[in-house]
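#structure-requests
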Amino acid sequence: MTYSPANTIWVLLGAALVFFMQAGFAMCEAGFTRAKNTGNILMKNLMDFCIGTPIYWLIGFGIMFGSGTALFGWIDPFIMGDYTAVLPAGVPLWAFAIFQTVFCATSATIVSGAMAERTKFSAYCIYSAAISLFIYPVSGHWIWGGGWLAQLGFHDFAGSTAVHMVGGVCALIGAKILGPRLGKYGKDGKPKAILGHNLSIAALGVFILWFCWFGFNGASTVGMDSDELITSAGLVFFNTNLAAALATLVTMIFTWARYGKPDVSMTFNAALAGLVGITAGCDAVDPFGAAVIGICCGFAVVLSVEFFDKVVKIDDPVGAISVHGVCGSLGTVLTGLFATGVSTEKGLFYGGGFHFLGVQCLGVVSTIAWTAVVITIVFLLIKKTIGLRADAADETLGLDRSEHGLTTAYAGFAIMPDGSLVEEAAAPAPAVTAEPLEAPRKAKEKAPDAPVYTRVQIICRPGSLESLKAAMNRIGITGMTVTNVMGYGAQKGKPEYYRGTPVEVTLLPKVQVDIVVSKVPVRQVIDTARSVLHTGHIGDGKIFVYDVENVVRVRTGEEGYDALQTDE
């Protein structure tokens, strides 16, 4: 066999990009979940690749690409057989094997997000191995290995069904058997929003995945040594980007209209939904078809997330079921409508009959059936033996600590009971030899008409702070303490939504300003603050007045009135 350097490099470059998708998935899943489980999420996304690689080498590749029967390849440990019949033109076996290995790992990693925050790590390792060992390879043989679906003309160019829908179905079954996270649903059955802790890294994950998807889809041409392949790759790149962009745009507008504001995390999901949806037919549809697929996925991901969250009550922290399962199947079926006939039969809307559309539907249904039955058996066996779900106490504490002995994935921050992050207090300063204190300065005798020491505490909106500071300086107040606080009072909070679920907003950000006065009349301070902060609306704030017994300056030992004065 004569090898093509262009084809080989193209396939290896694609493999590297698809491998880097693991980083994207890790960032998305970590960002959409709580801080107390970050280390666990990262560990899972590392290990599913490391577990899947040797297992796919040992058994999976042979099952998927062996020329056995229409249903099953062959058992070929360590890829020792002859695969000439399935190798792309000019591509050596090991280049093709690593390309397929990273696709297998992608399917396994999808499941992690839907089952996040309550799954035992040992259980995760086992079912991840099962996906790479036989679940993904068997259906992959039907679609890409010359199996019965391929013989019927089923078209899934880069894996909307073979990779993403398989992962999405496993995620659906796993999340259902596992049950929702503690506190996800109230006694009335209504879902409660559990916010992800870091949208910044979730956004980074989306951009990484979008970038790597050009390798996922583009390199699936498995060649670049002819005008036909070059043209096809250009179309694949364009369609991939177009579908993702339009899905994202549609979801932003749809959630804006539906919730009153554009939903950030749902819009992130939409980018992935568009990428998943176009993956099946990115080589077979024209840009118009890709645009329609992207638009459909943009609507579908929102409605699907709401359906699983609110109707069937399956807790999916990252939306993996909707993004990969629903949009993977949707994109595959829509290919049967919009295929132009260049690389497949013509779709129904382009002059083809119902045959191709029927084959696409059959492929989706049969792959769902195979995956659902086998993964259900795997999950139930795990549940009955080592257990699938972490203990309630461990879940509450966080899987970082209970599963990995990791106090926190964020040094310098504390994990609150709700899984959120707060900056920890600075560590105590190292002990030093203290210098002798100066003798305290004798406090000057207070004039008979000197004011008492009074603490004025002002709670106000953060946006009013600068105006308040300026006003206080104008009346001679030169010192104040400012603290960011959270407040709950008559103002309540505006109803907000996270992934379509109302968020209970009972605490609002406020600023607390503490001033101790003696010379400036207290009434002047109060009246000045009121004049600056008053708008006439709920939320203007409150002013509290306290008597202060004494004031001591630490550095000099001055007390009383002198301690409040600026050094001259």
